[in-house]
Hints:
Shape: globular
Number of domains: 1
Helix content: over 70%
Number of helices: 15
Structural class: mainly alpha
CATH architecture: Up-down Bundle
CATH superfamily: MFS general substrate transporter like domains
CATH class: Mainly Alpha
Amino acid sequence: MNSSGPPATPVSFRLAAGWGLGSLPMSAMFNAVSLLLLTFLIEHVGIAAITAGLLIMVSKIYDAVTDPLMGVLTDRTKSRWGRRRPYLMLGGVLAGASFIMLFTVPSFSSQSVLMIYVLAALILNATAYTVFNVPYLTMPAEMTDNYHERTTLMSYRVSAIAGGQLLSSVLGPVIIAYYGGGLFGHSVMSIVVGIAIIAICAICFWTTHDARFTAHVADHDFSFKEQLKTALDNKPFFLLLMVKFTQLFGFSIFIAALPLLFTRILDVSYAYLGTYYLFQAGAVIASQPMWVALSRRYGKAACYYMTSTIFAAASLSWVLGTADDPNWFILARATATGVGAGGLLLIGQSLLPDTIEYDFRRTGLRREGIFAGVYTTVEKFSFAFGPAVLGFLLGTYGWVEAQGGQQMEQSAQALKAIDVAMVVPTVTLVISCLFLSRYSLSESKLAETTVVTKST
């Protein structure tokens, strides 16, 4: 064990902020892909909505399948930098390069070749995200053993996630609009954001050089399949997976539909998305101290119910959105959505290291990578099916893809698909709350769980 202090010692501000910063580039990439890519493919590249949704789904399923494998790899890695940190730099370089590929699409004479290129870029991007994110998510379970310290640590991550939204969802649309939109505007945006992704990942790698980590543990006798089964036998962890899947499935549809909502229903410029996300991301960051304090006072589950209610109400309000909505009303929704999203992200993330610690106490096995891999697998599946479902909705309601790089007029029937997309998050959040009601891993229960010493 490389220890920067006793297990219960609070993580230093520099280390917490440095680790949390790693979420910024991945959030920038993830949010840009989730927010802009489907619209980019159908409104500018000219791929049919259903086909574009399926391409994204295929890449996410591939991404999900590789996550547990990455978890095993990072658990078994030996290096002087620990089991996790070497992948932060590698994943960052791959992420920046693949992001540029996604939004810099060459002109192809064949539609089949175009789809092969897009799918290849998606696969590379998914690989990069896995290489960085699985090792990254395992680090908090090793950095501190304190139940509430993990929540504080995760607040830095959630703030960085909001920072990533600012980079991609605020600056991104502004850059796209400034450079004339279309294929060229998206290409310039991808180069700016791609370079930033690589640079910030390098900073995260450097600032976590003294993070406490568990040295390589000798391989035990369980096969990967048996390890995975044992991980899923951890009831709190299994319930957390169900909470995250239902929550993020609704999120993914909501996020992917926002550009269409703004440009087709609210009738505002593409750059206005940047203003919206400026308010939303600002609310995510500003709400973190409040959610940390409420979590300590009322518990994580109670906070999740509160924040779900706020987000659901905000998303439902878009069903009534029209081109006549005043700016203050749009930005008020953005702020409410940010407050709700900030709590949902914080609570969901802070529960993960708790369930990992619970597994270690029950089994004596250090399998942080396995849990992080399975956790991110569920995240990827939720974001795989979300765009696919939205693409199916758009196609079913008669959405017409771009022709020759030009957007097409849409019927009133086609626009109804956007209203349906705004309702989905409320339904999925209700289901996630039902799963969380069965989650019972409180601070006291975790403390009472005896640490088992297991031979390897």
